[in-house]
Amino acid sequence: MSEIRVGENESLDNALKRFKRQCANSGVLKEVRKREHYEKPSVRRKKKSEEARRKKHRF
Fold this sequence. Notes:
- By secondary structure, the protein is mainly alpha-helical.
- It is 68% helix and 0% strand.
- The longest helix is centred in the last third of the chain and has 18 residues, at 41-58.
- The protein starts with 11 loop residues before the first helix and ends with a helix.
- The relative contact order is 0.09.
- InterPro entries: Ribosomal_bS21 (IPR001911), Ribosomal_bS21_sf (IPR038380).
């Protein structure tokens, strides 16, 4: 979980912006979207192999 401390002279907008940036960098939102719905292990493996194939083809 991301946590920030708001400075004494820091505005709420700046603190919120720092929090959002920290969440994005730590991958929290990506993880939430990934776990939003249950995904069978076979589907997960299929997506992983398709992504690897796509990456390999790209380079």
